[in-house]
Structure to design on (761 residues):
């Protein structure tokens, strides 16, 4: 994957991207290995919780309640954050959010000098709005300080997982990236070793220098606490804590869906999140900061603190009764690890920073259904995502709802004529609405498939080639031809020959499987 | 008991032997089987592919055909899951109070075949004989929607002569997913390939399950590779008896 940002407005269809990525056996091995490891860890720490299902239900209730009263809690957050010395900004969309952040960074310099660098905490929301590109265009370089995001940034790559963005890379690939791309005056990374310790040491050296020098930080947020005006971030490395405490200015960008009503709600969510995300009982670093330290002597933390509350289509999602549960997501990534489709393709196939099942429902909605229409179909509806979701988002249900939206667009006006699938499925629907038509269609089907049938050694007909889009089936699978008699024909014939029979003496020789 | 069989469209057309086997098992257990002739399809394919409007009339048809049934039994986990998961919602959306009440009244009498045997009738041994090495595939809808648990395996363990071996990736989707297998053929194929590896590793002669759509998918792959392993619906195993010449 090149440095090209994951952009749903220009990304190829899922099928096309998936096909390309599935040719990369190293990537598939990395993704498979990483998702298996995280899944196993998650399973262990979930099984030890006797009240896991109740906890999930609580999480769902908290999220549902918050979304139902989102305006109320957002305003409460704004009041309390402002009272604590923070400055709250509102952004309707990605463009506004980018402008606000760029403006704030420029204004954050000492003695009227605009900074040319910021340090960043891992944030999918800033990835969503392609903030780094906008900062770069304004002459500001953003250093990613999360280890995985650093790997992505140095490798000119894109995140493929919402929790573990560099999950598609293995250790030796990471070492090569570090050797090639890490530049620090007075330090030579070209002889870098390959152990986890070596790689962590290199990242530490590289990042420490940024932490001590750069005075403006940009973060996302895991949760916004309405009751206190506090912002919460959980992480594994402590690099986020560095960004939160060392710089003079901190700018946090958060989707409006990140708000929770009370501090106590974190009790539930901070149990669900780490166990689901990384298979840990608790995140190693849990930071909650509320405004700024206003002591005249100057306490810890930033002097200036800004929160950018961004809508970017979230209110559109909220307005849709059937799919608003999408906003309940707490970005744990458990659905990605559990998804057999994601496991095959990795995250880049989804053409969005939000990959996997949650990406398949979130991305098209963030695009207001104008882009990413192949994503709702990137699922076999197996339900593994719903099973692991810590806040019980019924992802298959939402996928089906979004498919309906796609079909409605494709069937409107003249669009239908360009779409053989829509016409075929509408025709089949008519068949099922009449028993007589259904019977005739079954007979016609038997005739239609005759030219395609090839008999095997047992005299059973098989089809190994089908035309058009049906050819997807025969790519790797055969299809047995229709038996000469349908079940209903057999049942009626049997009733005629032996009316009122009820014993099962050799009813159709069911045991022979008919093959 | 008088049992009404909902055969489902694809079993009717492609897998009549499964329907015959259901009839055979139920009659052997002393029940009467009827077949409401106006039945066609539950609407699953249309609903799941996004054609909600097209699926709607099939709800009314199903209710019309089965409202007087004492018990409705169907050998398809995904079709039963379609009904249990979506019919109440569909009736709600149609804003049809009468239909809504009828759906609520009828659904508790609708059973997936293995569930009918284990939960409604409380049976495990249905007098079957099947002297083959078999592995069971837990279809996603049976597993995560109907919560069949180990019900089908308990039925299989009680079959005389069977050598039941568990597949390594029991809970993993086979990659069928209805139109997914066609729309996302590449990914579906990769998922199937893993499932087939699991089946082959068991050295089973037959792979069984409670849903012929998954079995058609797995079986289609097994046949393409000329593995000699055959798909066989659970009902067909349970219908088999000594003297069938197996």
């Amino acid at each position: 994957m090149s440095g090209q940002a994951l952009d749903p407005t220009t990304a190829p269809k899922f099928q096309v991207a998936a096909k390309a990525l599935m040719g990369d056996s190293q990537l598939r091995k990395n993704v498979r290995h990483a998702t298996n490891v995280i899944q196993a860890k998650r399973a262990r720490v979930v099984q030890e919780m006797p009240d896991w299902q109740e906890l999930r239900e609580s999480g769902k209730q908290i999220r549902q309640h918050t979304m139902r009263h989102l305006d109320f809690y957002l305003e409460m957050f704004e009041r309390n954050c402002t009272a604590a010395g923070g400055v709250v900004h509102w952004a309707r969309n990605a463009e506004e959010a980018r402008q606000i952040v760029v403006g704030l960074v420029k204004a954050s310099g000492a003695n009227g000098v605009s900074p040319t660098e910021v340090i960043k905490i891992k944030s999918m929301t800033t990835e969503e709005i392609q903030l780094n590109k906008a900062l770069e265009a304004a002459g500001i370089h953003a250093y990613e300080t999360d280890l995985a995001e650093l790997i992505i940034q140095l490798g000119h790559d894109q995140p493929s997982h919402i929790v573990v963005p560099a999950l598609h890379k293995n250790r030796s690939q990471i070492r090569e990236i570090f050797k090639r791309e890490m530049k620090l005056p007075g330090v030579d990374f070209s002889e870098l070793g390959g152990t986890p310790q070596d790689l962590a040491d290199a990242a530490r050296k590289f990042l420490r220098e940024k932490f001590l020098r750069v005075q403006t930080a940009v973060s996302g947020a895991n949760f916004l606490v309405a009751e206190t005006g506090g912002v919460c971030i959980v992480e594994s490395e402590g690099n986020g804590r560095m960004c939160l405490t060392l710089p003079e200015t901190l700018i946090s960008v958060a989707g409006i869906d990140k708000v929770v009503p009370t501090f106590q709600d974190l009790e539930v969510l901070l149990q669900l999140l780490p166990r689901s995300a990384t298979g840990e009982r608790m995140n190693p670093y849990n930071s909650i900061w509320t405004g700024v330290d206003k002591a005249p002597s100057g306490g810890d933390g930033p002097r200036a603190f800004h929160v950018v509350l961004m809508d970017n289509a979230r209110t559109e999602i909220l307005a849709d009764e059937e799919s608003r549960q999408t906003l309940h997501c707490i970005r744990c990534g458990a659905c990605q690890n559990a998804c057999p489709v994601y496991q095959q393709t990795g995250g880049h196939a989804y053409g969005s920073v939000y990959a996997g099942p949650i990406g398949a429902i979130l991305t098209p909605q963030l695009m207001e259904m104008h882009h990413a229409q192949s994503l709702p179909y990137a699922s076999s509806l197996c339900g593994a995502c719903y099973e692991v979701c810590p806040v019980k988002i019924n992802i298959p249900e939402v996928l089906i709802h979004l498919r309906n939206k796609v079909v409605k667009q494709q069937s409107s006006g003249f669009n239908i004529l360009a779409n053989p699938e829509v016409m075929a499925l509408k025709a089949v629907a008519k068949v099922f609405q009449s028993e007589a038509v259904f019977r005739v269609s079954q007979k016609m089907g038997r005739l239609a498939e005759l030219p395609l049938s090839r008999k095997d050694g047992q005299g059973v007909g098989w089809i190994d080639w089908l035309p058009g889009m049906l050819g997807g089936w025969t790519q790797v699978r055969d299809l047995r031809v229709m038996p000469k008699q349908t079940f209903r024909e057999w049942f009626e014939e049997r009733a005629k020959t032996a009316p009122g029979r009820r014993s099962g003496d050799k009813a159709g020789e069911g045991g022979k499987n008919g093959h | 008991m008088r049992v009404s069989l909902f055969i489902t469209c694809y079993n009717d057309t492609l897998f009549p032997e499964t329907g015959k086997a259901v009839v055979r098992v139920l009659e052997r257990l002393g029940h009467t089987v009827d077949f409401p002739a106006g039945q066609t399809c539950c609407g699953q394919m249309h609903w799941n592919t996004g054609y909600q409007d097209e699926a709607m009339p099939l709800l009314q048809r199903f209710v019309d055909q089965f409202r007087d049934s004492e018990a409705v039994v169907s050998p398809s986990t995904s079709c039963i899951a379609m009904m249990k998961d979506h019919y109440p919602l569909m009736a709600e959306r149609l804003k049809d109070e009468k239909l809504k009440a009828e759906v609520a009244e009828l659904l508790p009498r609708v059973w997936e075949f293995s569930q009918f045997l284990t939960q409604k009738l409380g049976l495990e041994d249905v007098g079957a004989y099947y002297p083959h090495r078999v592995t069971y595939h837990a279809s996603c809808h049976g597993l995560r929607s109907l919560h069949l648990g180990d019900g089908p395996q308990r039925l299989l363990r009680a079959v005389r002569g069977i050598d039941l071996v568990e597949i390594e990736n029991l809970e993993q989707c086979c990659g069928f997913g209805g139109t997914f297998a066609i729309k996302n053929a590449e990914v579906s194929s990769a998922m199937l390939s893993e499932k087939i590896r699991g089946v082959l590793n068991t050295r089973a002669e037959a792979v069984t399950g409670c849903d012929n759509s998954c079995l058609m998918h797995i079986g289609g792959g097994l046949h393409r590779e000329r593995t000699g392993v055959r798909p066989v619906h659970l009902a067909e195993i349970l219908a088999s008896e000594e003297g069938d010449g197996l």
Notes: Chain B has a mean pLDDT of 97.
